[in-house]
Amino acid sequence: MQQQEFDMKKVLPIGIGIAALIIILISWNSMTTTIKSGEGGVLFELLGDGVNTETTYGEGFHFILPWNTMFIYEVRQQEQGEKMTVLSSNGLEISVDVSIWYQPSYAELGKLHQEKGQNYLNTVVKPAIRSATRSVIGRYTPEQIYSSKRDAIQSEIFEETRDLLISQYVQINEVLVRDIILPPTLKMAIENKLKQEQESLEYEFKLEKATKEAQRIEIDALGKANANRILSASLTDKILTEKGIEATLKLAQSPNTKVVVVGSGKNGLPIILGDQK
Length: 277
Known about the structure:
By secondary structure, the chain is an alpha+beta fold. Helix content is 52%, strand content 21%.
């Protein structure tokens, strides 16, 4: 009898250990979780307060109690494209293709899970980008959208989407307007109008250039006329005589010139008859 009690004392701990090991092996998948690169985890504590909104679990291997559940989220930047038909300020339909770069707020991942859930893309992000796009496009005419306001539209859609999602635990990094499609007849009418405006600007430029050139020529001619008038007024008989004498002396001093001066010409200037070989 004592031998049996002794054997039971030895076997019982072994049996308990084996049973515990079996339970651990069976429950291993529910007791451990691996969070991959670019992911974050939110823990649901069944016997606690439910979703743990204070802690976001990072990448790596984690032990959890078997009755708790870890929800995994992609926390890297993601892209979502949206094609929609919206109305311009004058009620015309315009097709818009936009793309949004977004990611969940890492520090508030628990609140996102608790309030929005894992389907937050469809329940929060898409409605926000659609609403912002319709609101912004509705402020502009098709001519503005097609010609000069595309960058402004993209910036405004980004700002409005960001404002809508900032309280929804979602971070918006960028909004891109990839394409704006107008009805063919409207597009052709706008292109013709823009072409006419461009031709008008070119004509005005040429006309302004020609006007400035004419003004330049007139100013140049007026300047020359004034210079000639001043010069004529300053050329007295004495100055002309002096200039003539200076020129004659220079000519006489030239080694290559032989001249004969006979008498005097008008105003006392010498007369140059020619050279002798």
